């Protein structure tokens, strides 16, 4: 696993949920308009069908 150091204001943990052909992570409404970074911390449990 790689190690990443990110300076920021707040950290949340969540799970990427299916959304059409993609996935999404929900963040608080107060984060609207903010720049965010998402880091995957585990292997996906579902694999894409290609």
Q: What this model shows, in words?
A:
The chain is an all-beta fold. It is built from no helices and two strands. The chain has strands at 17-19, 22-24. Strands 1-2 form a two-stranded antiparallel sheet. It is flat. The two termini are 25 Å apart. The mean pLDDT is 90.
Brief overview, please?
The chain is mostly beta strands and 50 residues long. The protein has strands at residues 17-19, 22-24.
Keywords:
mainly beta; about 50 residues; about 0% helix
Decide which structural class fits the backbone: mainly beta
Query: How many DSSP-defined strands?
Result: 2
Count up the helices: 0
Pattern of helices and strands:
EE
- What value does the average pLDDT take? 90
Oligomer: single chain
Q: Order of strands across the widest beta sheet? A: 1-2
Q: What spatial form do the alpha-carbon principal axes imply?
A: flat
Q: Beta fraction of the residues? A: 5-15%
Ends distance? 25 Å
Helix content: under 10%
Gyration radius over CA: 13 Å
Which sheet architecture does the biggest sheet show? 2 strands, antiparallel
The parts where pLDDT drops under 50 for at least 5 residues are none
């Amino acid at each position: 696993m790689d190690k990443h150091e990110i300076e920021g204001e707040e950290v949340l943990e969540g799970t990427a949920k299916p959304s059409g052909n993609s996935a999404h992570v929900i963040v608080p409404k107060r984060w609207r308009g903010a720049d965010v970074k998402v880091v995957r911390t585990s292997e996906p449990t579902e694999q894409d069908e290609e």
